[in-house]
Design goal:
It is a single chain. This protein is mostly helical. The chain is 74% helix and 3% strand. The chain contains 8 helices and 2 strands; from the N terminus they run αααααβααβα. The chain has a two-stranded antiparallel sheet with strand order 1-2. The protein starts with 9 loop residues before the first helix and ends with a helix. The mean pLDDT is 85.
């Protein structure tokens, strides 16, 4: 069969499956929490897929290049399409935006702008990941080891930012759709910025995973006890 199927890409494949499930959940308003949790699962899997892959010392050049490509393709779905799909759902079910339909005809223009932000967000995520693939391939031709800095904000930050906004929505029973979309626009810009971001170390990743688990628990508690 075409492709690579050893343990070095298992986490990446699991992330793709989680992202697809999350996108499917985002189409149902009652399952939006499931979509957000899938986004966080993708973030957790992405945090360690590279480290797992590098434990195999005899990886061929093909396996290394395949790993880079499949990781970026996974990130497009998980951190590009999935957050945008959640954003689409929030726009369509926003209480604030729906109330505007009875007060002003500008509602349709506002939703068009918000949908456009979702589209631009996906576009910039794809651009960033393509840029990363090209520069990483060029870097590996002249040096070994891992890079210490990212150029621009990694798309994986969406697994931290957007679940936190959704948690605030649940905890305070507020419609923060516009806040979600505002940060989606900011992320879209930062993805293709030239800002230098230090690559997090293993300890930082563990801390982020623990915080993510706590965040998921709080979301579930809020959903169960504050649903009325």
């Amino acid at each position: 069969m075409l492709g690579v199927y050893d343990y070095t890409v298992v986490l990446t494949y699991m992330s793709i499956i989680s992202a697809v499930v999350g996108i499917a959940c985002s189409f149902q308003p009652q399952l939006i929490l499931g979509a957000v949790i899938c986004l966080m699962v993708c973030g957790g899997l992405d945090a360690f897929d590279g480290k797992v892959a590098r434990t195999k010392k005899n990886r061929s050049s093909f396996e290394k290049k395949f790993g880079i490509q499949i990781d970026s393709l996974s990130d497009v779905i998980a951190f590009g399409v999935l957050p945008a799909a959640i954003g689409f759902n929030l726009i369509k079910t926003s209480r604030f935006l729906i109330r505007l339909t009875t007060k002003t005809h500008y509602y349709s223009y506002l939703t068009d702008v918000l949908f456009a932000i979702c589209a631009v967000y996906v576009l910039t995520a794809v651009i960033r990941l393509a840029y990363y693939n090209v520069t990483e391939d060029e870097r590996q031709e002249v040096e070994s080891g891992n890079r210490e800095y990212f150029a621009g904000v990694p798309v994986t930050t969406s697994a931290i930012i957007f679940p936190l906004i959704y948690l605030l929505m649940l905890a305070n029973k507020l419609d923060l759709t516009l806040v979600y979309m505002f940060f989606m626009g900011i992320c879209a810009f930062m993805f293709i910025s030239e800002a230098k971001i230090r690559k997090p170390g293993f300890k930082h990743l563990i801390i982020l995973v623990i915080l993510g688990i706590v965040e998921v628990m709080l979301m579930v508690v809020c959903k169960i006890f504050l649903k009325k």
